[in-house]
Amino acid sequence: MLDRFRRAAGVVWRQAHGSVFVLPDGGGDVVVLTGTGEQLWWLLAEPMTIDQAARRLADIYGVPDAAVSRDVAPVVADLAARGVLERG
Amino acid sequence: MDVTALLRAVAAFGLPDSSVVAPARPLSEPDWNELLTHVRWQRLTNLLAQALSSGVFPATEAQTTAAIDADIPALTGVLRLEAQLLEVADIFDDAGVPFLVLKGPAVAHLDYPDPAWRCFGDLDLLIPPDALDDAIALLRGLSYARRFPQPRDRFDRRFTKSVSLDGPDGQQLDLHRTLAAGGFGHRIIVSMLWSAPSSRFAVGGRDFAALGVEERFLHACYHLVLGNAPPRLVPQRDVAEMLHNNTVDADRVLVIASAWRGQAVVAQAITTTVDNLRLSTNSPLVAWAREFTPGRRERRELTRATSPGYSYAAQAIDSVRAIHGPRERLAYVSALAFPRRSYLRGRHSGPAARARHALSGVLNVRSTLKESRD
Asked: With CB atoms 3.0 to 4.6 Å apart as the test, which of B79, B147, B183, B260 could cross-link to A23 if both were Cys?
């Protein structure tokens, strides 16, 4: 939980149609971020830990930190595995 | 339905200076389908989807969904081209080949309020003439293949407008020596493109150099007028964005256009854009363009160069006239008159087709010369 995450270097992206479309470095499939995923994308323009991101999301959505934190961790892990986010 | 008026309404979406009017109600299905076909061809799916989603352009829910669906492939195509740009940039940087990004990616990031508003279908890079051969060789190492061989050695670096290459995954990359073909292209002073301060933009966290703002404006004008007949709408939107931004130094534009003897091209690009997209911009360039009267020779060359039937032969004749110095002219003419066999093989199916092409070339030359004399 103390690792900091940010947008991966070398990804290209556009915001359109209420989503963010991200092509990871090295190609592959375009990842479409909506809702919480999109909010995470904007937050992780600057590196932050999952807890910090969860607190910010909790503020945005007006829900308890703990609930958001449980949801955010697997999303961040998935996006990191797809090359959209990286540790740093 | 006036599809031209509808296309202009799409192309002008979001332009504060435009008085183009969107339709009052959703289009019928046949009209909608026709519009969507044209919008795809004009690479305006992004603006159509934005116009519909925002409610500026009335549409049924199904039409809005169809517009977004039509835009997704264009959008992902743009992302793949930017990834390609990052890959090519690494190779060129490692080899010390300088380049400037032209058109799509540069204009999208530098001149539009949001890069998602500018779609593009290929990559265009400006390469210094004496580095063009090295750049092509480097791309061959990435499995790129040029579409046509050059007619003679050193033709690319001396005379060509651009070299088109196809990448291993079907992506297209154009390496430019200069910004336009024909006489107007040959009068562009290429060294000026490299000596001017460049603009900078970022893609994928990497910094890229593009033409300076005035050179970018001039390129948009040349592309608008000389790129397609009739002119397509995306370059008109590019010119409109740059006029609206008010970052273009009008005096500098006119000095460069004069040095390139391209004022007629620039004036036509501006008036076409202002008239088609009904702009009420206060740029001094618009007042200049309205007043500008080209000389007889410039007017005739522009008429030829913007006609849908502007043949390769006519373009070559205009080029010969513009190329500086008898030695260079002779080298250009002899390269085209006596090219390598491999150059002809790629362009014609057999000896009979080559003979037909040569005959039509001669007829075109005669007709162009006659037209010039009249």
From this structure: B79
**Domain residues of chain B, as ranges?**
3-308, 309-374
The reply to whether residue B68 touches residue A17, judged by beta carbons under 8 angstroms, is yes
The fold for domain B3-308 equals: Beta Polymerase; domain 2 (3.30.460)
Tell me: domain A9-82, CATH 1.10.10, correct? Answer: yes
Q: Which residues contact A84 (CB under 8 A, 6 or more apart)?
A: A7, A8, A11, A22, A24, A31, A33, A41
A23 → closest Cβ in B68, B83, B114: B83
The residue assigned the tokens 């004036």 is: B267
Interface check A48 vs B, CB under 8 A? no
End-to-end CA distance of chain A: 13
Q: Which of A6, A7, A14, A85 to mutate to test the interface with B (most CBs of B within 10 A)?
A: A14
Q: What are phi and psi of A42, to 5 degrees?
A: -70, -40
Say if residues B220 and B201 touch (Cβ distance below 8 Å): no
CA distance B174 to B167: 11
